[in-house]
Write a structure and sequence with these properties.
- The complex is a heterotrimer of chains A (256), B (267) and C (285).
- Chain A is 84% helix and 0% strand.
- Chain A is mainly alpha-helical.
- Chain A folds into two domains: 41 residues; 202 residues, MetI-like fold (Orthogonal Bundle), CATH 1.10.3720.
- Chain A starts with a helix and ends with a helix.
- Chain B is mainly alpha-helical and 267 residues long.
- Chain B has one domain: MetI-like (MetI-like fold, Orthogonal Bundle), CATH 1.10.3720.10.
- In chain B, helix 3 crosses helix 9, helix 4 packs across helix 6 and helix 10 packs antiparallel against helix 11.
- The two termini of chain B are 15 Å apart.
- The N terminus and C terminus of chain B are likely disordered.
- Chain C has 285 residues and is α/β, with parallel strands linked by helices.
- Chain C has two domains: 203 residues, P-loop containing nucleotide triphosphate hydrolases (Rossmann fold, 3-Layer(aba) Sandwich); 69 residues, no CATH class.
- Chain C has eight helices and ten strands.
- Classes of the chains: A mainly alpha (256), B mainly alpha (267), C alpha/beta (285).
């Protein structure tokens, strides 16, 4: 009974929240039409929504999507291979790990994307720059989570392996790796998110590539409604992406 | 629920066989190797001139930058922008976070919007910020505020929910007012998640503000970096980046220390 | 019932004192930041083929240390451990270990979990599946072969762990408080299961426990240990009839054995409590 009540009230709350957003949008529209807000700074929400189909066609959004996801794909390919291997290496060689672990953690919090002008110089205004930035941004979480997964294997599972006299390779393949896999996936998801955020951001900054560039394009044409629409579109994509990966992760790890 | 920044150190930090000396030796070896590779690449002529300048050139440029009084003017502007962004975004984040954390209804109504908006690239909002706030420092502060609002509001909201409810009941049993409960119980109990949120917020505030500076500005460290890029003064750009990253990592570590060693490990 | 009794007596008569496991003057000292800590001191005993021996003692008496040493997970110790005449060096293939904590592999089904030691030994797939099913049925989990541990209760997971160890057909079954995380009623019922299996297989078993009822219910002999440093205080012969079930707990003989062992243990447990109070006060490390 209590759970039924709480589900009902959470639906009511969710509905309330959505209603508030819709109402706020309507208020903004009304204020703009009345001239209370400057129409050269904030476009009519209705105009923004109407410009969406135009944007999709003119900007060849499908193409932009493909470009951004291709960049992400290449970057994540590198991240997965390099990240997991490095994580395994650091696990295997404890001295190396003790020496570099804090460095990797610091790199995870360092604003790599701020060095994008440097990447521009080294790789030029090309897809390589974007992929490289995505790669470096997504790498630290994968390394750290792979390491965490392997090192955090429950002691008793390792003991089971030891009591059966497993060799180093068997221990790794049959116990450590499967035990670490859920955590590795968490790391891959985090890496994917960091990767995507940085890639879209850099596309915007250097006006090259897929979705990020679309926004720049609209802004430079002084297409106010279009700029807002493009930004909204990219945000929506990012949010959907985040939700989907979260669902996948929960499906892979039912015990979380 | 994996938050976008829950990447801390591994469960059991490694203790090197052979102890601290081994660690130092390895670090020195790695740094030495990197230095050698760098200098070789620099001298090899494989790269277009100055893309990989010699460490000496970078060092000289660094000294020149730090000795130039104009640099500190730019640095000051950047620090002010980041500071303002953190102050505004932090206060807003705290207030909204308290509201969401304290009310189950409000949380269920609005929090998931903030949660899903969190991991989006905020820099794409910059054209709007320019339209609203102009091309001066205000739009950079707005960018930074927008960036740091999210991690702070989410940390505060979830931090409030994690407070042991028995502590609140103790306050009620002594007839503490809502204000007293907030100041004397909620705030101290939430010290760790708040500081953690501030740490994350500082990180993204720096990123947001500086990216905005690189995109469109005529003052600030971000502007200086783009200026060096436009005249292809690579040693100066490297020097700026070194200063920037040292500040960013240093500020992060400082706030991390404030939060206490246990929270720092949880990142 | 009577027939099984007779079979057992005949077996004992044929090999009445074959010692499969011999512990001689076992001692272990740990180096802690507070100084050297002697966990176990001069422990000697032997386990006869087919018998169920329990080692019981208060917390801190070094029973888990003994478990790890016999199982080969703790390589440094003084004294000798011999299995069927051979001194051990590392985990011995004749010993099967069941751990106290959750030890089933969460990513494998029940069947794959129980197959694990057979897989390691290189047994063919069909053969090991057959064997595994046999032991899964033995512990009463027939029908759960394709479930994952997360879908089972704690007691069922421990049964999987036991089946997994039994599948390797060890000469000696070594268990460290396998039912510690279960409630009392589940313990008694699982105890029944263990008794059944042990009797059916004539499995030599060494059980480490702190639970007196469990020890008396299951064992032929009970070894009582002192508080740290752990020594053998007494060995008690449990002369309760076999085969047994958990109903034995209501008999007077049972009660007498429990009282006897508690008398020994109580002294040791009290010493343990006094020592931890002293160290909390800052007296001893």
């Amino acid at each position: 009974m209590a759970t039924q009540h709480s589900t009902q009230s959470s639906w009511a709350a969710a509905l309330f929240g959505f209603a508030v957003l819709v109402a706020a949008t309507c208020v903004v529209e009304w204020m703009l039409r009345l001239g209370l807000l400057n129409r050269y700074i904030v476009p009519l929400p209705s105009e923004v929504m109407l410009s969406l189909p135009r944007i999709v066609i003119e900007e060849k959004i499908a193409g932009a999507f493909a470009t951004t996801f291709l960049e992400c794909f290449y970057a994540m390919l590198l991240v997965t291979v390099v990240g997991i291997l490095t994580g395994i290496l650091l696990y295997r060689f404890t001295a190396l790990r003790a020496a570099t672990e804090t460095w990797v953690a610091a790199a995870a919090s360092a604003p790599i994307v701020l060095a994008y002008p440097l990447f521009l110089v080294v790789f030029g205004r090309t897809m390589t720059t974007i992929v490289m930035i995505g790669f470096i941004a997504g790498l630290p979480p994968v390394i750290l989570k792979t390491l965490e997964g392997l090192a955090g294997t429950r002691r008793v599972l390792v003991d089971v392996g030891r009591s059966l006299k497993l060799g180093a390779w068997q221990m790794f393949a049959k116990i450590l790796l499967p035990a670490a896999l859920p955590t590795v996936f968490v790391g891959l998801r985090l890496g994917l998110i960091f990767c995507l955020i940085n890639i879209v951001g850099v596309e915007f900054l250097i006006n090259y590539g897929g979705l990020g560039q679309v926004i720049n394009d609209r802004a430079e044409r002084y297409d106010l409604a279009g700029t807002y629409a493009a930004i909204g579109f990219v945000i929506l994509t990012s949010v959907l992406f985040f939700i989907v990966t979260e669902r996948i992760e929960r499906w892979l790890r039912p015990q979380t | 629920m994996a938050s976008t920044a829950n990447v801390g150190l591994a469960a059991r930090p490694a203790r090197a066989v052979g102890g601290q000396a081994d660690v130092v030796a390895i670090r020195v070896a790695i740094i030495a190797l990197l230095v050698v590779v760098w200098e070789l690449a620099s001298a090899s002529g494989l790269f277009y001139r100055d893309v990989v300048p010699s460490l000496l050139a970078i060092g000289t440029a660094l000294v020149k930058v730090l000795a130039n009084p104009e640099f500190y003017h730019h640095l000051g502007v950047t620090l002010l922008e980041v500071g303002a962004a953190l102050a505004i975004g932090g206060t807003l984040g705290l207030l909204v976070g308290f509201a969401l954390g304290g009310s189950r209804f409000l949380s269920q109504a609005f929090e998931h919007y903030l949660y899903y908006l969190g991991p989006t690239p905020k820099i794409i909002f910059f054209p709007i910020m320019i339209m609203w706030f102009g091309v001066g420092p205000a739009s950079k502060v707005a960018m930074g505020t927008l960036s740091c609002f999210f991690p702070i509001v989410l940390s505060v909201a979830s931090g409030m929910r994690q407070i042991d409810p028995v502590l609140i009941r103790v306050g009620r049993s002594f007839k503490a007012s809502r204000w007293q409960t907030a100041i004397k119980i909620h705030l101290p109990a939430m010290r760790a998640p708040i500081l953690n949120g501030v740490r994350l917020g500082l990180g993204v505030a720096i990123i947001g503000t500086l990216l905005a500076e690189t995109k469109l500005s005529n003052v600030g460290v971000g502007y200086l970096i783009m200026q060096a890029y436009s005249v292809f003064d690579m040693p100066r750009m490297y020097a700026m980046l070194i200063v920037l990253f040292t500040l960013a990592i240093g500020a992060n570590a400082l706030v991390g220390r404030l939060a206490g060693p246990a929270a720092a490990r949880r990142s | 019932m009577a027939q099984q009794d007779a079979t057992r007596l005949t077996r004992l008569a044929a090999a009445p004192t074959e010692r499969v496991l011999e512990i001689d003057n076992l001692a272990k000292q740990f180096d802690t930041p507070e100084g050297p800590l002697k966990a176990v001191d001069d422990v000697s005993f032997a386990v006869r083929r087919g018998e169920f021996l329990s080692v019981i003692g208060p917390s801190g008496c070094g029973k888990s240390t003994v478990f790890n040493i016999i199982g080969g997970l703790q390589a440094e110790f003084e004294g000798r451990v011999t299995i069927q005449g051979q001194p051990i060096s590392g985990p011995h293939k004749s010993i099967g270990m069941v751990f106290q904590e959750e030890s089933t592999f969460p990513w494998r089904t029940v069947l794959d979990n129980v197959c694990f030691p057979l897989e390691i030994a290189g047994m063919a797939k069909a053969k090991r599946h057959d064997k595994a099913r046999h032991f899964i049925a033995l512990v009463g989990l027939a029908g759960f072969e394709n479930r994952y541990p997360a879908e089972l209760s704690g007691g069922m997971r421990q049964r999987v762990a036991i089946a997994r160890t039994l599948a390797s057909e060890p000469t000696i079954l070594l268990m460290d408080e396998p039912f510690a995380s279960l409630d009392e009623q589940t313990r008694l019922l699982l105890g029944d299961k263990v008794l059944q299996i042990q009797q059916q297989l004539s499995q030599t078993t060494l059980l480490i426990t702190h639970n007196i009822t469990e020890a008396v219910q299951l064992s032929d002999r009970i070894l009582v240990m002192t508080f740290r440093p752990g020594r053998v205080k007494r060995i008690v012969e449990i002369d309760l009839p076999r085969p047994r079930t958990s109903e034995i707990v209501s008999s007077t003989a049972f009660g007498r054995y429990v009282a006897e062992i508690w008398g020994d243990l109580r002294e040791e447990a009290t010493r343990g409590m006094q020592e931890s109070e002293a160290s909390a006060r800052g007296g001893k490390g």
